[in-house]
Amino acid sequence: MSGILEVSGEWLALREPEDAAARSRDLALAAAAMMPDGPIVVHDLGSGTGSMMRWLAPFLPGPQTWILHDWHADLIERAIDGVRPSDRDNAAVSVFARTGNLANLLPTDWAEASLVTASALLDVLTSRETLAIVNACVGARCPALLALSVTGDVRLSPRHELDAEFAAAFNAHQVREAEDRQQLGRHGASIALRLFTEAGWRVRPSTTLWRLDHHRSRLLGEWFVGWVDAAIEQAPGLRAHAKRYRRLRMSQIERGELAAHIAHLDLLAWPHG
After folding, report:
1. Number of other residues whose CB lies within 10 A of the CB of residue 80
2. What digits encode the pLDDT tens for the residues 103-161?
3. Which of 167, 175, 195, 198 is most deeply buried (CB count within 10 A of its CB)?
4. Contact call for residues 147 and 266 (beta carbons, < 8 A)
5. Are 59 and 37 in contact (CB under 8 A)?
């Protein structure tokens, strides 16, 4: 699955506590209620260093086997070599790794799967990759819990007259074509929801938020810098305003005066009957 934006393990570690706080516990509990008696197998797509596994495993019954899918070998090695989470009965889970292009998924790849999961993934996928995931879930009749897909809704407090321009440019940057891949950006979750619905599946959405303030000042600063840089790359005309805007916002972060709400959409999809 080449061509996807490179992600550092440091960034994933920095955001993991906020991801854990933001994901929908209600959807996790609903997914747990769908699990069969006996051993369960969970396929985690775009697993990175395993943050979704560490968060979700304690909600689910055991014994659990997690199969982690990622295209970054160094990240998935951290997940395999790290501390194994426990299921809700306090038994350690088993973990295996798998690499490959999500666009080539088939229902037979998940013949034994009990649940498919992903976190912060749909916005960086293409339409072909998303369709392959949905078709594989539908073909295998395997529920899917897909968390933390950005919606493009960012609210900064206090407000600034340039916020909307930078937000629009960032959202456009997310759907740019890069290395022959057209990412879905803020449309990823809504497209997946539509595809599952058209397949006759039930889908339960939940709006989830990153709530960044002085308690998460380092994450807020890293997120803001990346947000502004992407906006400038997409709309170079913003460069004339960026230095002043960045200086103001970073000084507000340093003083604990800036807060940001970054909206996401979590989805739980499952077959009728």
Report:
1. 15
2. 777 778 888 899 999 999 999 999 999 999 999 999 999 999 999 999 999 999 999 99
3. 195
4. yes
5. no
- Give SS3 for 149: strand
Provide the CA 23 distance to its chain's centre, in angstroms: 10
Tokens 């993991």 — which residue? Answer: 16
SS3 sequence of 105-136:
CCHHHHCCCCEEEEECCHHHCCHHHHHHHHHH
Helices (H), the chain: 9-22, 25-33, 51-56, 73-81, 127-140, 163-174, 188-198, 217-234, 239-254
Name the strand (E) or helix (H) holding 182.
strand 181-182
Taking the C-alpha atoms of residue 42 and residue 45, their distance in angstroms, rounded to an integer, is 10
Domains of the chain: 9-270 (3.40.50.150)
- Greatest extent of the chain over all pairs of C-alpha atoms, in Å: 60
Cβ neighbourhood burial of 93 (10 Å; 0-12, 13-18, 19+): buried
With beta carbons less than 8 A apart as the criterion, state whether 175 and 185 touch.
yes
Dig out the tokens for 145 from the structure. Answer: 């819990």
Cα separation of 209 and 78, whole Å?
A: 27
pLDDT digits (tens, 9 = 90+) for 45-90: 998 889 999 999 999 998 999 999 887 777 878 888 777 899 999 9
Residue whose token pair is 């490959």: 100
Amino acid at 84: R
Instruction: Tell how many helices (H) and how many strands (E) occur in the chain.
Output: 9, 9
Instruction: Tell me how far apart the alpha carbons of residues 178 and 125 are, in angstroms, rounded to a whole number.
Output: 12
In sequence order, which residues have a C-beta less than 8 Å from that of residue 93 and are 6 or more positions away? Answer: 53, 57, 62, 63, 64, 65, 66, 84, 85, 86, 87
